[in-house]
């Protein structure tokens, strides 16, 4: 029995499409464009004294994410996106022109969610669930391979843990 390739897996996901899922996945993915949702959340957390360190840790994690993913890894690997290799019927998103590997949306989501989890387990579980859905939306939209999303999640989690630890260890906030 032949193993399932990443494209086969993406095509399987495409077979699940419905109008409701299309709208949900498109909007979920769009919420992560440019890391906007995470930057707004971090800014709100910084304003509140009790959550200031978590907000600063998210900002630090997003900064590391941006440099590592967008400045270094995507140009280094310059992997073609699935939508550049195979055309699907009725794509929900225009194929992007930057590299596919690793997923920036997923990395940013997991970076922020991991910080939230470190600061508050209950809220963190919800944030990690949202980050997982963000990663899935990138597969559903046919703009990333499963390995892009998996590596994005792992790197984002690493950035979140390190940022949280650094802020907790190195900052003395009122």
Give your account of this protein's structure.
The chain has one domain. It has helices spanning 6-14, 19-31, 36-47, 52-77, 82-85, 104-119, 121-140, 146-170. α6 runs antiparallel to α7. The chain is mostly helical.
Short précis:
This protein is mainly α and 174 residues long. The chain contains eight helices and no strands. Helix 6 runs parallel beside helix 8 (146-170).
Q: Could you describe the largest sheet, including whether it forms a barrel? A: none
Poorly predicted ranges? none
Structural class: mainly alpha
Shape estimate: globular
H-E order:
HHHHHHHH
Please tell me the total number of domains: 1
Tally of DSSP β-strands: 0
Write the layout of secondary structure elements.
Blueprint: H1 6-14, H2 19-31, H3 36-47, H4 52-77, H5 82-85, H6 104-119, H7 121-140, H8 146-170
Helix pairs in contact: 2-7, 3-4, 4-6, 4-8, 6-7, 6-8, 7-8
Keywords:
72% helix; 8 helices; mainly alpha; 174 residues
């Amino acid at each position: 029995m032949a193993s399932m390739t990443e494209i086969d897996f993406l095509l399987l996901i495409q077979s699940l499409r419905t109008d409701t899922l299309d709208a949900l996945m498109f909007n979920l993915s769009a919420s992560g464009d440019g890391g906007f949702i995470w930057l707004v959340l971090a800014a709100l957390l910084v304003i509140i004294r009790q959550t200031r360190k978590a907000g600063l840790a998210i900002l630090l994690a997003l900064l590391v994410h941006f440099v590592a993913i967008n400045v270094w890894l995507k140009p280094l690997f310059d992997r073609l996106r699935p939508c550049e290799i195979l055309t699907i019927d009725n794509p929900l998103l225009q194929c992007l022109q930057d590299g596919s590997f690793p997923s920036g949306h997923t990395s940013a989501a997991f970076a922020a969610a991991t910080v939230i989890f470190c600061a508050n387990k209950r809220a963190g579980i919800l944030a990690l669930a949202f980050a997982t859905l963000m990663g899935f939306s990138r597969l559903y939209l046919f703009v990333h391979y499963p390995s892009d999303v998996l590596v994005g999640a792992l790197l984002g989690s690493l950035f979140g843990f390190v940022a949280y630890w650094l802020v907790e260890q190195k900052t003395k906030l009122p």
